[in-house]
Amino acid sequence: MLATPGHTDDSLCYRAGDNLFTGDTLLVRGCGRADFQNGDARALYRSITRTLFALPDSTVVWPGHDYNGRTSSTIGEEKRHTPRVSGKSEDEFVAIMDALGLPPPKKLAASVEANRACGVVPSRGYADLDVGALREIAGAVALIDVREPHEFSGELGHVAGSRLVPLATVLDAARDWPRDQELVIICRSGNRSGRAAQALTGAGFTRVFNLAGGMLAWNAAGLPIER
């Protein structure tokens, strides 16, 4: 078993003899996206180049799926021919992944929660809010952005009036917040914000909303941002 974070933060690949089962980490001439389920493009690049590409070139790669009917490849082939990775620096790879512009899959937030709970969707005390609805009420609610500082000021920017409270610190920061305060939680794609919203409702907050699709959806709608 090989820890290969990037597509998700808990992605694993499995090696059996000369066979490597890569899931969505390494595909045939491609790799999994890194913009949801706690994905991280830099971690994905390192998992592929430092962990998987360190294996013998003859290692047979069995991906989780392929859109062109290909069932397998080898480490040697992918080193030479994977367009996003072959000959690319880490920064170049991150730029490629950031520019994919893929829409969030339908029901992403619910699917992520189910995956993390072995197929059982936890009960939710919060509601999802789409970008159109948030645009109408943004000035009347507390906007909590749970991304990291470099994301808050990065390419996707943030919604005007947002307060940066990284996910790992949100419960500590919320100790003095009124429990009936109306909160809209924001992240990149709606996953981390969903987790934060769930934690806040568990802590007794009664008016919590999660921005569905996160800043990806906000940007896709052409709505104004600040950096």
CATH third-tier fold name of the largest domain? Oxidized Rhodanese, domain 1
Shape: elongated
CATH class of the largest domain: Alpha Beta
Separation of the first and last Cα atoms: 40 Å
Portion of residues within helices: 25-40%
Q: From the alpha-carbon coordinates, what is the Rg to the nearest angstrom?
A: 19 Å
User: What summary fits the major beta sheet?
Assistant: 5 strands, mixed
Descriptive labels:
5-stranded mixed beta sheet; 227 residues; alpha/beta; 17% strand; 2 domains; 12 strands; Metallo-beta-lactamase, Chain A; Oxidized Rhodanese, domain 1
In short, what is this structure?
The protein has 227 residues and is an alpha/beta fold.
Written account of the structure:
The protein is an alpha/beta fold and 227 residues long. It has two domains: 2-98, Ribonuclease Z/Hydroxyacylglutathione hydrolase-like (Metallo-beta-lactamase, Chain A, 4-Layer Sandwich), CATH 3.60.15; 108-220, Rhodanese-like domain (Oxidized Rhodanese, domain 1). Helices cover 31% and strands 17% of the residues. It has helices spanning 41-52, 75-81, 90-98, 108-116, 131-137, 149-152, 170-173, 191-202, 214-220, and strands at 2-3, 12-16, 19-23, 26-27, 30-31, 60-63, 73-74, 127-129, 142-145, 163-164, 183-186, 208-211. The strands form three sheets. The chain has a five-stranded mixed sheet. A five-stranded parallel sheet has the order 8-12-11-9-10. α1 (41-52) crosses α3 (90-98). The mean pLDDT is 91.
